[in-house]
Amino acid sequence: MKATFRILCFPTFAAISFFAHLPAFAQQPVLPAKFGPWTASPTAPAATSLSQPLRQELGAQPGEAADYSNGNKTVHAVLERFKDPSTAYSAYTGQLQVGMQPTDVRPYSAVTGDQMILLIGNFLLRVDQVRSVSAADLRTLALAVQGHADPAPLPPIRNYLPEERLIQGTQRYALGPAAFQRALGDLDQAKFAPLTQDLGFSSGAEAMLASYLISPGKRQSLLLVEYPTPQLAEQHLRHIQPALSANPALSGTTVERKASLLSLVLSPANDRVATQLRNEINYETQVTWNEPSHTLTDPPWLLVVKNLFIGTFAFCGLAIALGIAFGGVRVITKRLLPGKVFDRPEDMEVLQLGLSGKRIDPRDFY
């Protein structure tokens, strides 16, 4: 009996192991075998620069790489996969550098020297030797990758940063402790790392950082933190304020809340700079009232005139009918019962001037 059990269980265990690893084997390649005049020859992907905690936080998956040839020209493409577009956007901002120039290949793309990075859904595409390929061919490559990408929207907090005096290439997005601490290091603000635990990333917080040029050669960093609800923002505001006041290295930094958004001007040069940066934040709140409502509209004037005529004729008709009914009943009653119901002599009186001695009899009128 035991031998039979082992024989039956071994195939079952093998099947379970096979199906457990099936997604890894069934993962389809994203980089196309050909785009435009370029033909691919797969290569081993380059080692990632992300640390293991950051890779785990961003949900990074095994990537791809390929060398594309067009005659004697060659370009190298590396594709990195992430959990969703938000985590891919975090990885994208982590690779931005001051001096990178935006391109017209994709809305979120930047180039420096001979290298271009492109954000495509939950993919991050890097192309080396980019000067050898035209912008039209790069768009063709991006469209091929986009067909496999997650179409979910990017986090809206990226649009809250002020545009005035923004130093391009310093934008950093973080939705976890590892990405946040790396962003602080990139902006030379590592002294604010103790705030990581108080920001509440486990509660769904998202952070956006950037640097601004406030005077020649002098920068100022701005930190925005958005929460799912205003209540969570208020709760974490009460944790951040004591943490700032208890740390002498963070003196001068204040935090303010507007609905679900917290703003911190890191070590502000003065109060005027901090106030100006906060006033330029592109964040507006909307309050909605979830209650049934209806919209009042005026009817056409022709309908109003028609209803007026109908109402007038109806009222006149009703008045005529009631008048005829009342008069008819009175005439018929007086015919059948003269002086019994209406105009009874004993109930009638006639005022006399007394010009003659004859007394007027009311019955003489009928």
Mean pLDDT: 86
The counted number of beta strands is: 13
Give the strand content.
15-25%
**How helical, in percent, are the residues?**
25-40%
Query: What is the overall shape?
Result: elongated
Q: Classify the secondary structure makeup into a structural class.
A: alpha+beta
Q: How many separate domains?
A: 3
Q: Profile the largest sheet.
A: 8 strands, antiparallel
Radius of gyration: 42 Å
The end-to-end distance, rounded to whole angstroms, is: 128 Å
The helix tally amounts to 10
Low-pLDDT regions: 1-26
Please state how the strands of the largest beta sheet are arranged side by side: 1-2-3-4-8-7-6-5
- Reading the helices and strands in chain order gives HHEEHEEHEEEEHEHHEEHEEHH
Would you write up a description of this structure?
The longest helix is centred in the last third of the chain and has 36 residues, at 301-336. The chain starts with a helix and ends in a 30-residue tail after the last helix. It has three domains: 28-146, Protein Transport Mog1p, Chain A; 156-279, no CATH class; 331-366, no CATH class. The protein has helices spanning 2-20, 22-26, 52-58, 85-94, 135-146, 177-186, 196-199, 230-246, 271-279, 301-336, and strands at residues 34-35, 38-42, 61-70, 73-81, 101-102, 109-112, 115-120, 123-128, 172-174, 206-215, 218-226, 255-258, 261-266. The radius of gyration is 42 Å and the shape is elongated. It is of the alpha+beta class. The chain has an eight-stranded antiparallel β-sheet, with helices on both faces. Residues 1-26 have low confidence and may be disordered. 35% of the residues lie in helices and 21% in strands.
